[in-house]
Amino acid sequence: MRNLIISAALVAASLFGVTAQAAEAPAAPYVELSNPVPVAVPGKIEVVELFWYGCPHCYAFEPVINPWVEKLPSDVNFVRIPAMFGGPWDAHGQMFLTLEAMGVEHNVHAAVFNAIQKEHKKLTDKNDMADFLATQGVDKDKFLATFDSFAIKGQIVKARELAKKYQISGVPTMIVNGKYRFDIGSAGGAEQALQLADQLVAKERAANKAAAN
Predict the structure, then answer these.
(1) Which of 142, 161, 205, 138 is nearest to 50 (CA)?
(2) Most buried among 20, 96, 114, 168, using CB within 10 Å?
(3) Phi, psi (5° rounding) for residue 177?
(4) With the C-alpha atoms ordered 204, 209, 212, 213, is the resulting torsion angle positive or negative?
(5) Which residues contact residue 121 at a Cβ distance below 8 angstroms, ignoring those fewer than 6 apart?
């Protein structure tokens, strides 16, 4: 009987130890989405950054993420998507999508960020946007016509649907290949976020190779 009691005590202690170890295990720095989202370009590994021009953390992330984007390998497709949670978020998101549709977003992206973050311009009215963008070489009339176009309205719907599918609650947030979501905080910092992105890209690349064999 004594042996049975000792054995039971040892088993209980062992189970408690396992439970304690599990509780102490560090949480993953990313969330794996239960319903993966299809990527924009089939055959390429997609990295998405969801952002807002009015977000100081997104602005601070710019000098870190931009050099990283420039060095991405050819099998990786980087996409910026504006988060649209209403009010100025929607106005800035519509401006971004308009500039992207016009093919000039890459020329004025930094200037728009600086205007909002450093010069404290609101840029929530389309006419104010057009006036400012004209100083950056963007055709004012073309911008206004594109801003209110049916195509942009469709892009707004798409951006909102993607944010909902990604289940984001803030910015900047990154999504790798429609499967993994993380932010700077969960990753441990801006540089760490990009290192994590690299790791997840490598993981997806290896999975694609294994599937092809």
Answers:
(1) 161
(2) 96
(3) 55, 30
(4) negative
(5) 115, 128, 132
| Count of structural domains within the chain | 1
- Examine residue 7 and state whether it is found in any structural domain, yes or no: no
Structure token digits, residue 179? 């499967």
- Give residue-wise pLDDT tens across range 88-106: 999 999 999 999 999 999 9
Structure tokens at 1: 């009987």
Confirm whether 15 is domain-assigned. no
pTM for the model: 0.87
| Element holding 78 (H helix, E strand) | strand 76-82
On whether the CB atoms of residues 89 and 83 are closer than 8 A, the answer is yes
24 belongs to a structural domain = no
3-state secondary structure of 127: helix
Domain housing 70: 31-212
Task: Give the contacts of 22 (CB within 8 A, at least 6 positions apart).
Answer: none
Q: Which two tokens stand for residue 89?
A: 């978020």
Q: What's the pLDDT tens digit per position in 14-24?
A: 444 444 444 56
Q: Around 82, how many Cα atoms within 13 Å sit in the side-chain half-sphere?
A: 26
Both structure tokens of 116: 């909002």
